[in-house]
Structures are given as C-alpha cells and as structure tokens.
Amino acid sequence: MSTTQIFNSLIESGNRYANSLTEYSRRKTITVNIGDVPMGSDFPIRVQSMTTVDTLDTIGSVEQTIRMVESGCEYVRITAPSVKEAQNLDNIRKELRVRGYNVPLVADIHFTPNAAELAARLVEKVRINPGNYADKKRFETIDYTESAYQAELDRIREKFLPLVKICKEYGTAMRIGTNHGSLSDRILSRYGDTPLGMVESALEFLRICEDENYFNIVLSMKASNTQVMVEAYRLLCKKLNEEGLKPYPLHLGVTEAGEGEDGRIKSAVGIGTLLEDGLGDTVRVSLTEDPEFEAPVAKALIDRYSNRKEKSTIIPSFTSTQHSALSIQNSFDSPINPFQYFRRSTHEVANFGGHNVPRVIADYSQIEVAQHEDLKPIGHFYLPLPDKWTMNDLGADYIYTAQNPAKYMLPMGLKEILDASVWAEQGDKLNKFPLFSIEAYQVAPEKHATLNFLSTSLADLNEALVEQIKADKTLVLVVATNNEHAMPELRRLFFELINQEITTPAVILRKYSDLPESDFQLFSATDCGGLLIDGFGDGILLQLPDLSEKAELITKSKSYNSTAFGILQAARTRMSKTEYISCPSCGRTLFDLQETTAMIRKRTEHLKGVKIGIMGCIVNGPGEMADADYGYVGVGKDKIALYRGQNVVKKSVHADNAVNELIEIIKEDGVWFEPVNDLEL
Ligand code: SF4
To answer: Distance between CA 121 and CA 399 in Å, rounded?
Structure first.
C-alpha cells in the first residue's frame, strides 16, 4: 500500500490514531533520511540520546558520543545554544569520523535561528523547538484577532523559511520537537496548556515545510506529565491524518522523567503506552543520569516489540456466537476519548472504585506471613515498644495470601485476600476477603457480605456473566491475561465493561516470569501504566514469579511493591512519594544536576505528593513549573532561580545555598515537616 493510500484509509476511519487497538501493528510512516541511518516504519525503532558535556569541549563531546554509541545510541544529539557551539559541531563530527564513528549527529536548537542555519549545513539533523524558535517567552496572554494571529504566522514563516531551504539543499533532516514546558505565548493564548496546543505548535511549522515540499521531518510531543504526553502524540497522529499531512515518523520521549527507578517507570508508562499502540520510530529516554545509561532502557522498551506481531493473538472482536450480544465489532471501536483523561466511572466497593485512589495488593501467595518482619517489605512496620503497627507512604493496602492465611492478626491498614476455598474455612471471615474463580463464584454457598473478588479475563465475558457482575454490588474484578500483547487485551476488556455499563471496580493483575528487575519495572509500567493512562484500573496486583527461597521472595516483594506505587504515581493516579521533575541535563546545564537532584531528594523525599522541578536551564524551566509546586532552575553559572508554582520567588541565589533557600520557601508555605527516619527500610 502506498503512503497516500495508507493515510487515506486512516482518514476514513474517523478518530483513528493507530492502525489497530486489538493487535500489534506499527503505524506506517514515510522514511526520513538521517545520515546513513534512515528512520521510519520500514526500519527498526531507533535509539537515541543527548550529550551532557559542553559542546565547546570537542574531545569531551567526542568521547561521550562514543560511549553513547557503544551503549546503543543510533543518533546522538548535541546542544547548540549559539553560533559558536553550532560551529564546533563540525569539529566534533570530523573527529568522530576520524575515529571511525559515523553516527548521525543532531543539533539541538532553542531560540537561535542563526545557530540552526549553521548547524543544518554541518550535521545530519537539526531539532527545533517550535515554542521558542521564532518567539521569546514573556508569559503574556494575548487576545489575538484572526488577522493578528495570521500576521504572527507570517512572521514565523519569514524566520523559519531560511532553515527549511538550507535543510532541503543539504539533505539535512529536521525534528520539530514540541515541549509541553515551552509552548509559545501565542499557542498558550489560543489553545492553552493542552495536548491540542502542543500539536498545533508543531503543525504551524510543519505546514510551512510541506508548502516548501520539504518532508525530511520527524515530530515529537514531549511532556513530563505522562497523560498529556500520550494524549498529544495520539492527537498528533489523528490531526496529521485529518489534514492530509504526511505520516511522519515519531520521536518518543517523556521529558524530565527523573532518575533511578522513578525515571525508568515514568518513561515506560509514557513511551511504552505509545509503543503498545504501534506508535514511535525512535525513542529517547531522558534520565537525570549519564546518557550512556539511557540507551539500554530505550532498547529494552523497544525490543519487547521486535517479534510482537507473531506472538499476539488478541480476540479481534466480540462477534463470535458466544459474544454475539456484546458490542465491540472492529479493531478500532473504542468507547473512550483517547485524547483526554477520564477515569472509568465505577461504584464504590469497600475502598475500591468511586473516588478512591487505585489500591496496591501485594502478592504473598508464596510467602508465609509468620513474623512481623514479613510485612516490612511492603511498608508495614511493627514497633515492639509501644506495641503497635505503623506504615510508611508505600504501605500496601491488601495482601493476597491465596492458600496460606497469615499466622497473626494483620495491622489495621492492611487487609487479607484468600482463595475462596480457603476463606470458607476461616474462623474470622469478616476481616478477610475471598477471591473466586468464575466457576467457584457461581456455585458458592457463602460470600462475604461487603467485598468479594472475582478473577476474570476477556474470554470469560458472556451475557450471563455480565448480568451476574452487574447484579452483585460487593464484587471487585481481578482482570488478567496470558496474552503477550497484554495491555491491549486488558484495555479491550475494559472497553467491554464500559459498553456493557458495568461499573464494578477492577484490579489489574500481571504476572511475569523471573525477569531481570529492570525489565520487570519497564514491562509492568508499560502494561499497567498504559491502562491507567486510559482511565482504567482501580488497583494493581503484581504477582511474584515462582521461586522457592523465602528470602528471595521477600526481596522481590519489596521491589514489586515499590514498582506498583511507582506506576500509580507515574500515571498520575495516586501520589505516594515526592515527585521530582528533573531534566536529563545537556551542554546548557548551569550547575551539577545529578548531584543537586540527589541533594534535593535527600532533603525532601519524605514530602509525599509535593512536586519539585529541577531544571538545568531556563529553556524548559518556567513551563514545567506549571506542573510543579516548587522549582529550582539554573539561570547563570551557579546561579539559581527558585519558584513557587510558576512564579519566581528568588531570582538569583548562589547554588551553595539554593537548596536551603528552597526548603525555607516550602517551610513558609506550611508544607514542610521533619522526616521520620525509623520507618526507612
Ligand atoms: S532544561 Fe535541562 S536538558 Fe533541557 S535544555 Fe535546559 S539544561 Fe538542557
């Protein structure tokens, strides 16, 4: 099928943003030539990252680029804040070629068309930010008339055309890279701080390129808010289809994802969700760590889809006889708006559904709960002296003990779920809850008066079961699948619950074989996060792999619990930790970002739910502050601006004292409290 035929067929499909919601199918794109590493759907999804050393440090940049290539990067981006740095890209490129590295280089441009125009003559690709290429940010809301807005677009065209012409002449590729944190005043005034504003920001520039018959373009829609990021990419695909613009390759990324486990989980929630939909042709994972640690994460996310098509066998529709009364008829029927977050409407059952945050159920089916210590990995601590239990912010809500009832009375904040057959034999049936299979549920002589769990899969749904589920207001579903293409199958199940007007809360259950911890985090964050981003899931149960050693199970239990809370936070459905929106740093960074982030984290990580932005420079600073409660932004060499929300409260504090000053601001707001150290694991 030709490209034209592909996008014509997409346009006919209305709200479509992907090829299919029921089987893995990569979105078809045109090919973009970037040096000798082409990008697009005819090629593997590419890995890339960005250097962090000063661009004027030629050898430092070359050596870091080589380390990045060795770690898996297929493109390397280098910042060019001014003409000086743009010019030095030539030296960096030449030295790399001398050393035998042909990796395409990408110049990263903010604010400086003259640097872009020079870089476009020297390297394989230029990234521009449509939010600041032709505009200076003044944080003004302007009421544009149609003609005033058109005059602005004409002004942009005039500023942008020279770069387009140079790229065309030199065969240089371009990324039009929108960033949620740096939308122009013009876009913010007309569209607000929205996914639509992000999309329009890129399209204004893209239309100019197409008018000039320049198509060697990649697009991105990055945000640190995973919901906004996913919605913007999906909306972009829809808008490209609707306007008859070409299906350009997509560069996926979550900005300012942070570091360590949180950064990886957040990246997987955003990037993984889109990869599941078949979107994405290159991935950059942004961690506040050295860039050579980013490529392996990107690669692990991408590799999961290498053979996905062969492995996925999702039920394509409910048109079989068994499901004839159910409503989903083709691979793209969807009862939700994929471009705007709404949580699926559910009724409250105990503390599930309704307005309750999604619950975390820890898997203790293989761990005998015999000593107080056994609950420590999931955030519940026994203090012998006052003889009481306490919990930290990552205290699980339930444990699933299956066939092995706990040997002592659990703390108040923790409830127990047992397999129904074992529950039926318990003396205390009131404070424990049964998990039924469908067969057991249908013949059960006794059920709990207020809360019963029912294991369900997509294939189980039929008219009789739908009626039973609707009639029982004590039920919480536990939804599972063995399908490798798990997220779409479970999403399809949720679609069907909506179509059948079932408002029963549902817990997402996932079980993986004994994966390396890093893959487990990424895969579970993709599968559960993708559902949560679409508004699905009233709880998570991550089952442990089958293991024989209790010590090993306990260790895993701690990391699984932390991952579950991390996923809920990354999908913005339950805040249980301090949120750090920290940029990955680059050649523009004005202070030691990794060290500073670690220092701020050490001092503030007990402030549950507080969001702190840490930005190496002003480029994404103020915009990202829209999403943060407090901000720490580099404004000059070792000079820091401190923000409360979007407002600067201290303009230029020396880096030596800036963390203390930040804490003073938090204290002034009454948000500060002293950490309690005895709850640390
Ligand atoms: S916010 Fe961070 S990564 Fe982005 S340009 Fe500034 S220093 Fe570089």
So the answer is: 60
Euclidean distance between CA atoms 147 and 451, whole angstroms: 61
Q: What separation in Å is there between the alpha carbon of 138 and the centre of ligand 1?
A: 19
- For 505-551, how does the pLDDT look when each residue is reduced to its tens digit (9 = 90+)? 999 999 998 889 899 999 999 999 999 999 999 999 999 999 999 99
Contact 612, 630 (CB under 8 A): yes
- The response to whether residue 588 sits with its C-beta less than 6 Å from ligand 1 reads yes
Query: Distance between CA 4 and CA 10 in Å, rounded?
Result: 10
pLDDT in tens, 602-619: 999 899 889 999 998 887
Report the chain's C-alpha Rg in angstroms. 26
Which amino acid would we find at residue 52?
Answer: T
Centroid of ligand 1 to alpha carbon of 620 (angstroms): 7
Reading the block at residue 674, the tokens are 């002293």
152 CA to middle of ligand 1, Å? 27
Strand duo 359-363 + 579-582: pairing: unpaired
* Contact criterion met (CB below 8 Å) for 231 and 572: no
Residue nearest atom 8 of ligand 1, based on CA coordinates: 586
Per residue in 264-296, pLDDT (tens digit) is 999 999 999 999 999 999 999 999 899 999 999
Paired with 389 in beta bridges are: 382
Q: Measured between alpha carbons, how far is 106 from 109 in angstroms, rounded to an integer? A: 9
Helix axes 517-533, 226-243, angle to 10 degrees: 60
Residue owning the nearest CA to atom 6 of ligand 1: 617
How far, in Å, is the centroid of ligand 1 from the Cα of 34? 23
User: 3-state SS of 622-637?
Assistant: HHHHCCCCEEEEEEEC
Give the DSSP H or E segment for 506: strand 506-511
pLDDT in the model for residue 59: 98
> Is any atom of ligand 1 closer than 6 Å to the C-beta of 585?
yes
Closest C-alpha among 217, 336, 278 to residue 10: 278
Q: What does the DSSP 8-state code read for residue 223? A: B
Are residues 172 and 166 in contact, defined by beta-carbon separation less than 8 angstroms? yes
| Residue that the structure tokens 């580099």 belong to | 634
Does residue 53 line the site of ligand 1, with CB under 6 A? no
Number of residues assigned to the chain:
681
Q: For residues 332 and 20, give the distance between their C-alpha atoms in angstroms, rounded to a whole number.
A: 6
Alpha helix (H) ranges present in 547-632? 550-570, 593-604, 621-625
